[in-house]
Every structure is written in structure tokens, then in C-alpha cells.
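Q: What would this chain look like folded?
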Amino acid sequence: MGFHTFDAEQADRLERPGRYRWVSAEELVGPLVEADAAVVADLGSGTGFYTDDVAPHVETVYGVDVQPEMH
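A: My prediction, written as C-alpha cells:
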């Protein structure tokens, strides 16, 4: 099984606000708040762009990525 990886030297591109066109912070967090989620795993978290939005709304969030240099 292969992994989809991102060029870590261009990780700053993962922090661009334009990524919200795929899913807004409200769309991401809303269902977690409604479900009263306590623990979330962000698989393929990259730089943690979306993880940062989720963290204030849950007790624990785990950001996991196959590329250590993305953390």
C-alpha cells in the first residue's frame, strides 16, 4: 500500500485559507459539537491546518501523518 505524501518543503501551501473552499471551519466543527465529540483523530493531518480548528471544541485531538517532517 502506498501513501499520498506532500512535499514538506511546500508545507506552507497547506496553511493557505483557500483550503476552506473544500470544507469551512463551521462545516468541520459543527457535527463534532452536535455529537458532543470528546476525542477526534485527524488522519493525514499534515501541518494541522484543520486540527487547529477542531482542537478548541473537543477534549483531545490526535493529529497523525505518515510524514514526521509535516508536524
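The first helix runs from residue 25 to 34.
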